[in-house]
Amino acid sequence: MRHLRARVSMAGVAGLYVVAAVNPAAAINCREWLLLDAAQKEAAIDEMIGDVLGGQRVRQYGVNRGALGRCLYARVPEMALDFDDACSDSRHAGMQAIETRFKTYVWSCD
Amino acid sequence: MATPLRCIRGALAILLLLGCAGGPQRSQPPASAGFFAPSGFLGDYSALRPGGGGAARLVYIDTAVDFSRYDRVIIEPVVVWKSDEARFVGVSPSQREALAREFQAEFERAFAQEFVIGKGDPGPGTLRVRNALTAAIAAPGSADPERLQYVEVELELLDAVTNQRLAAAVDSKGARPSSARGAPQVVEARAAFEEWADRAAVRVAALRDLDRQHQQPRTP
User: Using CB atoms, which residue from B51, B202, B216 is nearest to A26?
Assistant: First the structure.
């Protein structure tokens, strides 16, 4: 049991390292995603949303940016499950699997 | 040992795979799109999917597209799509055209804050926006064309050079007379057009900025 906890803990540290090592502006890939625990996944999605909302030009639109942000943040748990599914299918989980799904959320969120 | 949750997820995955199995291409939206009857403006609706709770009724995006390269946009004149006269009850042809011009102006205003508005000659890095007013039904007892019971629009984003469809959406506000229950909600046309235009411009800009940021090299 102790060994298991140690492994989980190591995986968590590795996951944190992955998140920290990734440029905030860079897309996360499935290999990195699968190392994260639930909280780290949500943090990674929060960061992706921040990338969308933090764009210099998007920032000009306070009200609409806020609406897009509220919609995206409300769907973080759904996105985490969706990204899990995208990455669990080894045949189709390419480097852009998460990014492509995230784009769909950006376009359709209302 | 498989947990019940895993079994359920496995069953759902199988159902999803079966649902995705190749079949004939349809020009109609999926049945899950509900009561939506396509106006015909977008031509092929088979790739559009329900937008989900609160979202546009039908949406499509080509996620493989690199939006970072687009910095210009050509906004085509908004079309009044007269596929069915029942879609424009109580709104005269001249009023429909006025609404279309209003919608056009809102799109030009919104996109001008994000993109260079191009005219005519499309070059690389240019988006083309096609819009249609596909329904506008006057509010009961109102002669003001700005006050509608139901309004519906369709939007398509294309690469101006290749004509590749990059994204599309179908959305509406209000309720059709046949589906309205109780006192019909009044939709202010200008506010609806403004909201749709801002949403579209912000989302396209967000996708562009996302792609631009994701192209930056990673730092260790």
Answer: B216
Task: Specify whether the CB–CB gap between B110 and B136 falls below 8 A.
Answer: no
Which among B56, B205, B214 has the least Cβ separation from residue A99? B214
Cβ separation of A23 and B202 shorter than 8 Å? no
Residue B165: which residues within 8 A CB-CB, separation 6 or more? Answer: B47, B60, B62, B156, B157, B158
Cα Rg of chain A, angstroms: 15
Phi-psi region at B140: left, alpha or beta (left = phi > 0; alpha = psi -120 to 50): beta
Distance separating alpha carbons of residues B172 and B135, to the nearest angstrom = 9
Per-residue b/e over B62-94, b at no fewer than 16 CB within 10 Å?
Answer: bbebebbebebbbbeebbbbeeeeebbebbeee
In chain A, which residue ranges form alpha helices assigned H by DSSP?
A: 2-21, 30-33, 38-53, 62-74, 76-88, 97-108
Instruction: Say whether A109 and B213 touch across the interface (CB within 8 A).
Output: no
Chain position carrying tokens 């900025």: B209
Question: What pTM value is reported for the model?
Answer: 0.78
Q: Are strands B126-138 and B79-80 parallel, antiparallel or unpaired?
A: parallel
For residues B94 and B98, what is the distance between their CA atoms, to the nearest angstrom? 6
Residue B11 CA to residue B76 CA, distance in Å, equals 46
* Residue B53 pLDDT exceeds 80: no
Whether B145 contacts B139, CB under 8 Å: no
Phi-psi region of B143 (alpha: psi -120 to 50; beta: other; left: phi over 0): alpha
The pair of structure tokens assigned to A59 is: 């920032």
Which residues touch B209 (CB under 8 Å, ≥6 apart)? Answer: A51, A52, A55, A56, A57, A58
* Burial (CB count within 10 angstroms: exposed 0-12, middle 13-18, buried 19+), residue B177: middle
Percent of chain B with pLDDT strictly greater than 90: 57
How far apart, in whole angstroms, are the C-alpha atoms of residue B127 and residue B112? 13
Q: What does DSSP assign to residue B136?
A: E
Residue A11 scores a pLDDT above 90? no
